[in-house]
Amino acid sequence: MSVPIIRSVGELRATVADWRREGAKIAVVPTMGALHEGHLSLVRAALEQAGRVIVTLFVNPKQFNSAADLAAYPRTEEADAAKLAPLGAHLLYAPNIGEMYPDGFATTVTVSGVSEGLCGAYRPGHFEGVATVVAKLFLQTAADLAFFGEKDFQQLHVVRRMARDLDIPISVIGCPTVREPDGLALSSRNVRLSPAERQVAPKLASVLFDAAARIAGGAPVDETLAKARSEIVSAGYAQVEYLELRGDEDLSRMSRLDRPARLLAAAWLGETRLIDNIKVPVG
Ligand code: PAF
Question: Domain for residue 183, yes or no?
């Protein structure tokens, strides 16, 4: 069995209208392709909660702040479709660039607050690109539910805020990060790691898990984060962009563990930028 591929908004809307007439609940799983087990776990979660599941595949140029990063992004549509078919996804919506951003396109969705700091500080324009394309995908698919990975935790908050603020009637559901057996969070960027870098990569997660446990156990936040930063660099990472404790519910800054929290990090391993985050329970 193969998954039908649709490339135009018109055809997508017609299919969704048929599903609506059948009374089906519709879910969307937005992706940029290069599907891995993390994406597939979102599709499985969507299939559990909705009668029809649309996976979108669009490598969104507006969210890349480096032309080299955009050019290097893996494009594997055929393999992606082959991974989706056995799961039972109902549709792959893969518009081309002209369909998504026709000539004269001039609108940008900006979400303040939760987009600021963390990745927002290092990737100017990134979350505007994400919010703009995800708003379009929500409106184009008119889905009831949308599934996102917690690995991009700030993105999850940005998308939730955007949908709430624009009154888009969709429930945004965050799903747990899927990890390799050695702890490395799955990411489409992991394929760029050299064998030597791949050996070092899981150290980011292990340092985060360790620091989260120490903070949960009462260790002082600032000292613990400073030690964790130096452990990440000693392991072989070139640079830690950020390592911060933020509120789990609203991404507000925290210097004491007085509410449920997330430890979030971005670090460079050679030419590859990896991000990860871990929940820090309180009490
Ligand atoms: O997480 C991603 O792959 C992208 O940021 C998304 C949500 C598909 C928007 O392009």
Answer: no
User: Does the beta carbon of 175 lie inside 6 Å of ligand 1?
Assistant: no
Phi, psi of 111 (to 5 degrees): -110, 115
Residue 26 shares a structural domain with residue 166:
yes
Return phi, psi of residue 279, to 5°: -75, 140
Average pLDDT, integer, range 229-240: 98
Q: Is the pTM of this model over 0.90?
A: yes
Lowest mean pLDDT among 12-16, 73-77, 80-84, 228-232: 73-77
Separation between Cα atoms, residue 271 and residue 265, nearest integer Å: 16
Domain limit, last residue, from 124, 150, 175: 175
What token pair was written down for 39? 């994406």
Domain count along the chain: 2
Cα of 133 from ligand 1 centre, angstroms? 8
What confidence score (pLDDT) does residue 164 get? Answer: 98
Domain CATH code at residue 248: 3.30.1300.10
* Paired sense of beta strands 145-149 and 5-6, if any: unpaired
- 18 with 98, same domain: the answer is yes
> Is 133 touching ligand 1 by the criterion CB < 6 Å?
yes
CATH number at residue 90: 3.40.50.620
Q: Whose CA is nearest to atom 6 of ligand 1?
A: 31
* pLDDT tens, position by position, 27-62: 999 999 999 999 999 999 999 999 999 999 999 999
Closest Cα to atom 5 of ligand 1: 130
Q: Are residues 171 and 260 in the same domain?
A: no
Cβ–ligand 1 distance for 32 under 6 Å, the answer: yes
Measured distance CA(148)–CA(116) in Å, rounded: 20
Inside any domain, residue 180: no
| Coil vs helix vs strand at 155 | helix
